[in-house]
Amino acid sequence: GFVATFFVAPQFKADLKEDYTWKEMCGRLRENGLESFSPKEAQARQRQGALLVDVRAPPDYKNGFIEDSVNFPLYRSIEGWGFAKNIRRAAFAFFGSMGSELNPEWLKQMEAQVPKDRKVVLVCARGGAIEAPGTKFGYESRSLKAAFRLQQAGYANVAHMKGGIQQWSSEELPLLHYTDDDDDDEDGATAVDDGAMTYNAVPSNGVPSLQ
Fold it and tell me: Contact, 26 vs 140, CB < 8 A?
């Protein structure tokens, strides 16, 4: 594991890295004036019609999610068994993690269910920041990376929630939990293409645009 992580993996950097660096993403998000809302502000925007999109992995989402949010995981478990994939697994395993990779179907899944004129507030575990004291490029997070990708795809009303679910929980705002008993509930988990899961799914008749 150590040898693969520190001596072999650098030779396959192109296979392991994502298509944009965080520095590039952060710069573009700043240029585009990304809005960031506190949990209470995000809750207010949701009541006004915004859609809260949680980009965490399904197990994390099920353990605590905001009512009427939808789950579109930005990352998935590493799939396939090519050499570069195995090196990626080894790199994650060295730090005690199962490993993940960008979900290549994520944007397609979003575009299939969420219109580009819909107000979207992105949520992840800790929120991150594009501006933070003592840093050049803030703190990266899955919700900020998702915001970048939506803006690149032409979504005009994208924001992100500061502090993520951790801050939402610390402010004692309500969270729902998905249990095994919900498996037989028609309003429970709904499978979407290629592994995306929506709990409290986007209505089948489409998502209304904000007025």
Answer: yes
